[in-house]
Amino acid sequence: MSNRPLAAAGRLVPLLRAGLIAGIVVAAAAYPLVALTGLGAKATAHAVEHKTKLLTTALPAETSYVYAPDGKTVLTMFYEEYRQYTKLSDMSPNIQQAIVAAEDSRFYQHHGVDPKGVARAFVANANSSGVSQGASTLTMQYVRMALRDSATTPKEVQEATQQTSLRKVKEMRMALDLEKELSKEQILERYLNSAYFGHRAYGIYAASEIFFSKTPKDLTPVEAATLAGLVKSPSEYDPADSDQKEATGRRNYVLDRMSQLGYLSPDSATAAKSEPIRLKLTDPPNDCASVPEKYNSWGFACDYLKNWWSTQPAFGANRLERMDKLRRGGYRIVLSIDPKVQAAAEKNVGSKENTGSPFANGIVVSEPGTGRVKAMAVNRTYSLDLAENPQSSNPEAGPKVKANYPNTVAPLLGGGDLPGYQAGSTFKMFPMLAALDSGMTLSTSFNAPYRYKSSVYDGWAPSNASGAMTGQQTMWSGFGKSVNTYFVWLEERVGADRAVRLAEQLGLRWRTDVDREQASPTNAKKWGAFTLGVSDATPLEMANAYAAVAADGRYCEAIPVSAIMNRDGTPATYTTAGGIQREVAKPRCRQVVSADAARAATDAARCPTGDTPARGGCGGWSTADSVRGTVGRPVAGKTGTTDSTRSAWFVGYTPELAAASFISDPDNPFNAVGDGQSQIPIAAVSETLRDALKGQPARQFTPPSDAIVG
């Protein structure tokens, strides 16, 4: 067939544009061509022209990819429509020719609307007293798909797809206008990236991968004809059905048309038709539950990514818009998880072996100075399948409520809507930091009794865990031994409200009604028990808060990514309140306390770990004196246990990494882990830091100044 535009097309197109067609008004109900005569209406014309211009820049929804830190290993994808935009130059000529043969053999001759096709459809529709034949060109089909894909409201979706004369008329007008703006190659490229081929495959890249496990560049004539035949009716011609009769018949029709158009020789078409349809089906992963088994524990980091993404204004005004962007925006996202650190974390919480316990033992590792999360691991399998999980340990849960082990997707490590776990004496860091930042010194001394009755907190009288803690204490010894009465007294001096506000500046959030009420401006001054860690917190929050101390008081928001690229390869950005454009994946840091106050807090925090502070003495013993020997380098941190050891914590850090580990029953906080398991978080953190930093030179903490030592 000749590729020269027909003379009839050349004569009819200007008539279509001018609205001068006459003599077919009676047939308007049968086919909407006649309605073109009414396109002189200004409102309709302006609306169509506006939408046509939008379609020249509109791009279809595209799959977002999540990568491991190497930027190459795909961990999972997010999509509503599985699609990866592909340039025409990266498609086999076979698929280009097959789609033209199947859907619009006169594509290169018409100008968006095919007069012969319109006439043929007009006759068919008039004879059938209805709309039995469509005459839609590839350009018209693309217009319809683009309007559907760019719709932002249900009404726009309906207008783009409803079977009405007005919709068809607008479609024709837009097709005519679009061909003045885009070349045939551009239209064909966009069409092949928009068409639906069935099996969640939108666009030729997805179709090639799902049906044949290859790229569009490698499609054979037989494969191309099979895919091109699907566009007309993906379910009717589905080659994955057990009976391929309909699919084979449709494929052979396309091969015959390719031969008639000169794309295939008759002999090649005959040989191709004799071949069976050989599929190599692929099921592309979607969402965090599809993370490969090898990276199963990374599912928790993936889940944190989703929750974090849903809070970022850069991706929309609300959660719904942001998640829509994630699933349709075609982003390339690189997680901040470090494989070496993650492997150490998994090993030391037994995430692959110790999944059969109601007590969750988890760990989060954060990078001081950036806030990037380097590891998230817990002794659970990341899975939606809860069928084999036992009944919940919570006596108030119903008999059908499953426990969170061995399988779960609950955000046990933070970043979601779970409140976390009481963090015990790890909270002593906040009043100590507040005191140091307000001008108090490390040498601030108090003769701490076994029990201390507070005059500030309405006679509240907490006691120490041991009588051995009684006596004169400084910040070094008080922190190293975890002396409750010393820290209640210290909190009185600096103000509980100041400690609460500082904790908020370091990233803590109050997620229970009790915590929110106690932390309110009205009640915070009287929240004496705050220093004992009665509030819930997550390991993500605690790791990041302590990371700020390691970074000389510079707090960086927790972030699960090292890079986010738009579909065009540029970094995703946002605009700050001050009008500055910044990359979304860049660290967001601010100075919360002075560097000297943070260094002083670190000096005191070396005492619990068995390390030697630069400027003071620890008082002879500490609560986790094995840590320094295990880590093998300067280390600081703090233990934490709650009443009856319902949960136990350890948060530790070096200049390079900060890690927080807990053990608790997420289903039932009253199910005490017991003193015998309180060493588990200590071991998890110290061994993870040791393994993660193996081979790196040991860095020293910067000592505090003379002025703050006192």
UniProtKB/TrEMBL annotation:
Residues 74-258 form the Glycosyl transferase family domain. It catalyses: [GlcNAc-(1->4)-Mur2Ac(oyl-L-Ala-gamma-D-Glu-L-Lys-D-Ala-D-Ala)](n)-di-trans,octa-cis-undecaprenyl diphosphate + beta-D-GlcNAc-(1->4)-Mur2Ac(oyl-L-Ala-gamma-D-Glu-L-Lys-D-Ala-D-Ala)-di-trans,octa-cis-undecaprenyl diphosphate = [GlcNAc-(1->4)-Mur2Ac(oyl-L-Ala-gamma-D-Glu-L-Lys-D-Ala-D-Ala)](n+1)-di-trans,octa-cis-undecaprenyl diphosphate + di-trans,octa-cis-undecaprenyl diphosphate + H(+); Preferential cleavage: (Ac)2-L-Lys-D-Ala-|-D-Ala. Also transpeptidation of peptidyl-alanyl moieties that are N-acyl substituents of D-alanine. Coiled coil: none annotated. The keyword DNA repair does not apply. Pfam families: Transgly, Transpeptidase. Residues 363-667 form the Penicillin-binding protein transpeptidase domain. It comes from the Bacteria. GO terms for molecular function: glycosyltransferase activity. It is an enzyme of class 2 (transferase). Its EC number is 2.4.-.-. The chain crosses the membrane at residues 12-34. Keywords: Carboxypeptidase, Glycosyltransferase, Hydrolase, Membrane, Multifunctional enzyme, Protease, Transferase, Transmembrane, Transmembrane helix. InterPro entries: Beta-lactam/transpept-like, Glyco_trans_51, Glycosyltr_51/Transpeptidase, Lysozyme-like_dom_sf, PBP_transglycosylase, PCN-bd_Tpept. SUPFAM superfamilies: beta-lactamase/transpeptidase-like, Lysozyme-like. PANTHER family: BINDING PROTEIN TRANSPEPTIDASE, PUTATIVE-RELATED, PEPTIDOGLYCAN GLYCOSYLTRANSFERASE. This is Transglycosylase domain-containing protein.
